Amino acid sequence: MAIVNHLDLQSYLPIVAFLAMGLTMSLVLLVLSLLRGKSRPDPEKNAPYECGFKEFSDTRVKFDVRFYLVAILFIIFDIEVAFLFPWAKNLKEIGIYSFWSMIVFLGVLTVAFVYEWMKGALEWE
Amino acid sequence: MLDWIPEEILTFLILCGQAFLIIIPLILSVAYLVYAERKVIAAMQLRKGPTVVGPFGLLQPIADALKLVHKETIIPTKANPLLYIIAPVLTFTLSLMAWAVIPWGEGLVMADINVGVLYLFAISSLGVYGIIIAGWASNSKYAFLGALRSAAQMVSYELAIGFALICVILCAGSLNLSAIVEAQEKIWFVIPLFPMFVIFFIATLAETNRAPFDLPEAEAELVAGYNVEYSSMSFGMFFLGEYANMILMSAMTSIFFLGGWLPLTSWGPFAYIPGFVWMALKIAFVLFLFLWVRATFPRYRYDQLMRIGWKVFLPITLAYVVGLSFCIAYGVFPETLGVIK
Questions:
Q1: Nearest Cβ partner of A88 from B15, B151, B169?
Q2: DSSP code of B256?
Q3: Domain for residue A11, yes or no?
Q4: Residue B299 carries which DSSP code?
Q5: A9-31 burial by CB neighbour count: b if 16+ within 10 A, else e?
Q6: Do B153 and B213 contact (CB within 8 A), yes or no?
Q7: C-alpha–C-alpha distance, residues A18 and A100, integer Å
Q8: Mean pLDDT over all residues of chain B?
Q9: Which of B3, B15, B153, B218 might form a disulfide with A17, Cβ 3.0–4.6 angstroms?
């Protein structure tokens, strides 16, 4: 069966080579700058930048909940996209039945999306 | 001569060498993309741009890189040192890794994997981690806010990119990048999928944090966003990574919509130009659009940015996917469009 043979791990080897080269190069660049750059530490210089002031409060503070909402919404829709990939590739072969199955799936998510929209989860003032 | 090396390791070393041969020109083109950016924008604003270092300022990027290497590497006292160092390494490595699957011509590709599109999508999604980690590890308010904005913006526009890619896959019937290019032999996807092309291009601008969506940078309010605490080569790696990502996005645009290595026309002398030159020309063209947009449009407000991403692009692309898949499932598309094999 052709499907079984498709998992050809050998063809992924160049990706590992790229990973190795990328890590090597970033290491080289870092070490190079550590060797060549002069190090003159200074408590003022190494403090977090805040327009010349000493920092007023800790950075690890509460942030706007909408960033969290965006992340949650993103996960839902990204899973949807991930589901669509194999379906889109094979749509020609698997035909009308699979089309309507996916429409039902998308429809459920669209209802949720409309609900979020109406609730104002997408508003940024 | 090399008998003592086991064959597997030798194969791997050769692959590493080939990867090196792609990475070095890539980094050089990043350097000259920066030069081109300064020159193009200068020309559009009736200035001259860099002229001092070398003829026409051609050595300017080299001088900049040398200067960066000689700067002090600062690790802020309040930062988490390990994460602080990992973030630029991650950004830089990821921006190089994606190039493993980019086809430069017929069979001219290092990793001809079946799920090339999925791989590119995954790698470009991972880019968010470098930014989030940098913003968190710097322990500085500007960096943190910049990272949050940047991450929210990138994930929002990734959905539009994802749905646009679904349209391309629907037309090509394959996830393999070479097969996608070959499917465009009759007609480039930019014509049947023109709205998706426009949305994909705008979304790549947002995904790479480019103007007019460069809110994370927003000099006036956030100084430089997530990389404000970085200096020397750790900053340089963010910089290289960002520009390599720009080139990558242009390569993706050319592969998915502009026919990759396929020639514009096979008429006369054009037929003798090799495929990878066409590919490079298309990438250069899309990069020029990036620069042109930067010189032309003012920056968006954050609420406008999120509104476009979620309330305009997402519904439009979703509707386009449904419409297109309906046409393909019911065989509405005429063969002449060339979108179906």
A1: B169
A2: H
A3: no
A4: P
A5: eeebbbbbbbbbbbbebbeebbe
A6: yes
A7: 41
A8: 86
A9: B15
